[in-house]
Design a protein that fits this description.
- Helix 1 runs parallel beside helix 2 (about 45-55), helix 5 (about 105-120) packs across helix 7 (about 140-155) and helix 9 runs parallel beside helix 10.
- The chain is built from 10 helices and 8 strands.
- The chain has an 8-stranded parallel barrel with strand order 1-2-3-4-5-6-7-8, surrounded by 6 helices.
- The protein is globular, with a radius of gyration of 17 Å.
- Strand 6 (about 160-165), helix 8 and strand 7 form a beta-alpha-beta unit.
- By secondary structure, the chain is of the alpha/beta class.
- It binds 2-phosphoglycolic acid.
- 2-phosphoglycolic acid binds near residues 9, 171, 211, 230 and 231.
Length: about 250
């Protein structure tokens, strides 16, 4: 049976003092029901802080990006080995903000997922269509193209990743895909994964895009929706915990 997973994506938010309070509240408030995972992905400078605050708890932590390169002359980049040294379990790769604003291609995203896996991290691979792509009726083609690029590189190791379906038009906009719209895309992704490898049919498929405490339950009711990647609502402990408990 697949478990459930809720991951917070803090994006470029946080500060030493706020993080201390938020991490402590999460640690106290997370009751860790069986088969349910909770994690936060923080900015690089705070990985040590997440590690210090969450070690020994049932909450995992991770990075929001990693370099596809192992090391060397890549000014400003952070390698998977560096991230792994801070006890990370997860690394988000291919978030739509990185694809849109930092020019990450499907190929780069696949290389990042490969590097993360090789370092023992679980990549959370983001896929999702823009509003223009949805309106043009190309949602399926876009998400399958993004998934296939990673699957082609990983082969049967695709079974070891987590996928997050995040329609770009739903991110930070307060507009979510309806539970039915989300489930339709998740079903499609699940079918494609099972064609790559039977075991990959059990990959956790998270939904992301304006997930809040008051819409989480309806989204999680989808048969192929295994949890959420949560941006804005992961910055408030009560709201984030309410989502995780939904
Ligand atoms: P949001 O962001 O929950 O603020 O819409 C989700 C994400 O970008 O991962």
């Amino acid at each position: 049976m697949r478990g459930k997973l809720v991951v917070g994506n803090w994006k470029m938010n946080g500060g030493l003092r706020q993080n201390d309070a938020l991490l402590a509240e999460l640690r106290v408030g997370w009751t860790a029901p069986p088969m349910r995972g909770l994690a936060v992905c923080v900015s690089y400078p705070y990985l040590w802080q997440a590690q210090a605050a969450l070690s020994g708890s049932a909450i995992a932590w991770g990075a929001q990006n990693v370099s596809e390169h192992a090391g060397g002359a890549y000014t400003g980049e952070v390698s998977v080995a560096m991230v792994a040294e801070f006890g990370c379990r997860y690394a988000i790769v291919g978030h739509s903000e990185r694809r849109a604003w930092y020019g990450e291609s499907d190929g780069v995203v696949a290389a990042k997922a490969t590097a993360a896996l090789a370092a023992g991290l679980t990549p959370i691979v983001c896929v999702g269509e823009t509003l223009a792509e949805r309106e043009a009726g190309t949602t399926e083609a876009v998400v399958l193209r993004q998934l296939d690029a990673v699957a082609a590189k990983l082969g049967e190791r695709i079974g070891a990743v987590v996928i997050a379906y995040e329609p770009v038009w739903a991110i930070g906009t307060g507009r979510t895909a309806s539970p039915a719209e989300a489930q339709t895309v998740h079903r499609l992704l699940r079918k494609r994964l099972s064609r790559v490898d039977a075991a990959a049919a059990d990959v956790l498929l998270l939904y992301g895009g304006s997930v809040k405490a008051d819409n989480a339950k309806a989204l999680f009711a989808g048969a192929d929706i295994d949890g959420a990647l949560v941006g804005g609502a992961s910055l408030k402990a009560d709201e984030f915990l309410a989502i995780a408990h939904a």
